[in-house]
Amino acid sequence: MAIADQPALGGIGESVLRKEDARFIRGRGHYVDDITLPGMLHMAVLRSPHAHARIRSVDTAAAAAVPGVVAVVTGELMAQHNLAWMPTLSGDTQAVLATDKVRFQGQEVACVIAETKYIAEDAVQLIDVDYEPLQAVVTPQQALAPGAPVIRDEKAGTTDNHIYHWEAGSKEATDAAFARAARVVSLSTHYPRCHPAPLETCGIIADLDPVTGKATIYMTSQAPHAHRTLFALVAGLPEQNIRIISPDIGGGFGNKVPIYPGYVVATAASLLIGRPVKWVEDRTENLISTGFARDYHMTGDLALDADNRFIGLRVSLLSDNGAFFSDAQPSKFKAGLFHIVTGSYDIPTAHVVADGAYTNKAPGGVAYRCSFRVTEASYLIERLVDVAAHEVGEDPAALRMKNFVPPEAFPYKSATGFEYDSGDYPRAMRLALEKLGYDELRREQAEKRARGELMGIGIASFTEVVGAGKGRDYDIVGLRMFDSAELRVHPTGKAVLKLGVKSQGQGHETTFGQIVAEELGIPAADVDVQEGDTDHTPYGLGTYASRSTPVGGAATAIISRKLRDKGKQIAAHLFEADVADIEFERGRFWVKGSPDQVKTIQEIAFAAYSNIPEGMEAGLEGVHYYDPPNMTFPFGTYLVVVDVDKGTGEVKVRRMVAVDDCGVRINPMIVEGQIHGGLTEGFGIAFMELITFDEEGNCIGSTFMDYLLPTSWETPRFETFATVTPSPHHPLGAKGVGESATVGSPAAYVNAVIDALAPHGVRNIDMPVTSDKVWAALRGAGVTE
Ligand code: CDP
Questions:
Q1: How far is 412 from 404, CA to CA, in rounded Å?
Q2: Known catalytic residue: 739?
Q3: 207-257 residue pLDDT tens
Q4: Could you read off the pLDDT of 60-72 as tens digits, one per residue?
Q5: Fewest CB within 10 A of the end CB: N or C in the chain?
Q6: Which residue, by CA, sits nearest to atom 17 of ligand 1?
Q7: Local structure of residue 344 (DSSP, 8 states)
Q8: What's the predicted TM-score (pTM) here?
Q9: Does residue 370 carry a catalytic annotation?
């Protein structure tokens, strides 16, 4: 049966328009802040002005006396209910409301619950806290210095600010490689603290029914099921009495993975008062107190032999986690950078040492559009390879080609022990070079250099890792990282697909329907995809680290195949044939040799409720929990061309060519959209975004006037291309893609600037690469006055 005879299904590989856009572009999205419940109260949070201070007293009398104020909640009150502290997703504890000390500027100290948001905000100003300021610790180096004030002194036996020490790879083998190296190149760099800054800030409405005891919690959650389990553990509520509803989400990027103190206070307040309580943070609250990313101090040494082949890699890193270690890290890989630290290169030995420290900053380290710190890993290796190219005088593209893991080496075991599933790095690189016109641009660069002009070409040939678990190795607070899909086909052949993952704008309602279309032949438009309601979706670990397609997508494919198998049995019954003789293609069943007599999936669905073989269960539905055998390893090559103004240090991105390989693409248009978004975020991180702190721990970067996000005005045009190297273990051959461009692109942008400056001896400028830093580097090199 020719595929061309079939109706367009919207299957895999089709750029089906996004279903969800019908409501989003009409302004009909439904977000937490759109929800108003009868009798709803509003919460505002008092935050610490100090980075580190002891709390002597909290006087709430004036706030409590404001008409319309229903309650003022302090740490002491929370402590009476054993809720002043909560567990974090990485096995630490975090203050819900401060009792003993404040440990970062912006930390939650007290909350006001009032009839309106305005009353709550006004009353918060009347709470009088007597602080005794303490010395603030604002860098991890200070934190680990002898005699540093101990930030987490509430933890019995804690005498310093050190959180963890992790190692990966072989020290001995790596030392031996370095001992025989012809050359060693080094790079020390800081991947700065930046913020996911989703357009929609975080928020919650907690609605505890005093009669039934049922808690309905509307929340901007990327992981509603895991959050429900945590709520049950923290609040001691029976899990079946908690329903988390995560409605439309206006961007998450990792920011909506942690549990924030405001969620706990709003829930406790609703429980105690017996009315719904809403808390939606404002922009500054989001920027100063929630889910920071990166803040990694990294040193890498790369050993090369006489032919410029990489023979060893040493990395040491120091992570600034802020006052509480609260990002979601699998318990076995707290450092997160190990997975792809050797990048796309066949480096036989590696040794990585990672330490984490507490500082007086907001909790940091969320995987902002990233899986467990692989962004930092990718940045380090891609920058280091460029430093090597400049030091040994070899073309950075040629040096990469020479050292790539060869396509025939997959599945490839890296020196840190991870198995890359598939890849063809030279192919992606060749395509990118060809699309850019690399050789011609290098010629132009040589001419410009001769004239004293600054032009640079930056390369990043990143490898990524997405799709956590497998469950045996990956867990969050002990919960294995599987995911799930539940599919029900109704008698008319229309389907409902329920997932454990949760879209924050990635287009799941479209792409997951496409998977069902491909596997079961039901048009994607006939599949209603539902997510984000713990009462009505199967358990899953949620959407972050680009795991939806690798895990939830695989679960969807497998449950569709199971229903297809049942459909074959029903077809055999209807045709009075042997099930082994039933053929299936794009929603049609027939007996081998009789392709003219078909039963459609819609007919089979009706039969599932009306005419089934003796002994068969009625209905056409099922659920599958998928535990992936491995992660998936998408990759690509990004090329950036910049011109740098010698007088001002201004950098202009002239070209950006991106070749991505995420295996089989379910919806190429959506994939491209993901890449455009990631390249834009990478551009912002590379050139503009910076949250910094003064020596007293004051956060500088608490509004969009200071924390600069790229707009269409400064963002370059992207030229995007693809290669397809299927994942051998994913049922569809698909790999995740959501985070690839954020992970891979910052190094390409920075490499381009350094390439422009390299003839003058400049080897590094830490991000963000602002004009003033470039100008200072040029001045330091004597290029400009
Ligand atoms: O977990 P998250 O949704 O953030 O990331 P993802 O799995 O990489 O998916 C992002 C979007 O791209 C989803 O709508 C996917 O279904 C789609 N996608 C695709 O069409 N083909 C792929 N190979 C990977 C993702």
A1: 11
A2: yes
A3: 999 899 999 999 999 999 999 998 898 778 899 999 999 999 999 999 999
A4: 999 999 999 999 9
A5: C
A6: 671
A7: T
A8: 0.96
A9: yes
